[in-house]
């Protein structure tokens, strides 16, 4: 075992007078105490904690360095005026012609038969209609067959909903709860107040399950596409389902985003998310579950790494200088990457500029991993994942951070905070399918509400579900 290092609080004479076994024990206590203090001092700048969890004692977040021209509030000087385009007069609900009745200069009455001297100035006012809900009554008659006297009742047509509510209302309920995070009781109040439709909380929950079933093919379509993707960003966050505590997983590809709620955050759940046939690359944090993927097929998130190094710098101990040096090298990596992303350098120059930084980090970590202090385990882990740190340097389209997955999780986190999770397995399936369809529609700028209507209509008519993805991959 390496020689224990003397704590700064003890003099050299006191340290030499301490038995070797006690030195080892003191070194162990100092390391554990530093780790405990670092955990207590965690905030959004040195860990994966969100900014909303920062205590009042946390340091203020650094101001972002402005780039480009200085901006002012509102439209920028020289910006062209933006006006809403007028729709054709033939498409408006009503046209109200307005004519002046008298001349303001001489007070002369203007006759009605005067011809306008120029086309009228047009103002179009958009308003939501105040109309009672559309209620259609289907009357199913029963007849007696004159041949065999059998009673014959009319069957429900395929395009008629099986219950009291139509596909547009089902889609609206799914949209308001699954995309805009209204609670079920708020949703009932809104539907009754605005659309004058009597509905109960129980009916709202049942209709959400109808929408969930209608979106199941879209969920499967996205999962199959992601299994064939070349690269995905993956992350996970805690969830709540009744008394259980599952995890919400997300995989973000180029054209699709998949959410799954699973009981666990290990290798099995990762394989379920990506499918056993997945052979692409994965950008993620350093959760142990991702170690099942070879380092050459991974990109480790540098944003997480910088937060971890910052926490080591802020913790008191003899590792602070090494942590500060590694943090400075990581900042240099981002500075070079920023120049590449802005187009100031090409990939060959990127690789050349990063090569000495890589060498310096490797040499420093090789030394630190044997010191047996708070930074050593992190360096040992990074050396094991060394290839996964630098995939972005060689492979086009891969970035050094996992921002895509973290951004995708934000709406889900807001939903979890507002609703405290779900209460059943059916509720969790609705959540993951709505999140999947909503995020994927947003990726290729497809309106969500019409898709929900089409999916519910096809489900009730026993027709194939509408395709969610364009031809191509994820």
Automatic annotation (TrEMBL):
Which residue numbers delimit the Transposase IS66 central domain? 163-428
Q: Where are stretches of biased composition, namely Low complexity?
A: 42-51
Question: Where does the record place the region Disordered?
Answer: 1-20, 39-87
Pro residues: which segments have biased composition? Answer: 52-63
State the Pfam families in the record.
DDE_Tnp_IS66, DUF6444, zf-IS66
| Record-annotated Transposase IS66 zinc-finger binding domain positions | 100-148
Highest rank taxon of the organism: Bacteria
Report the residue ranges that make up the DUF6444 domain in this protein: 27-84
- The protein depicted here goes by the name IS66 family transposase
Q: Give the taxonomic lineage as stored in the record.
A: Bacteria, Bacillati, Chloroflexota, Chloroflexia, Chloroflexales
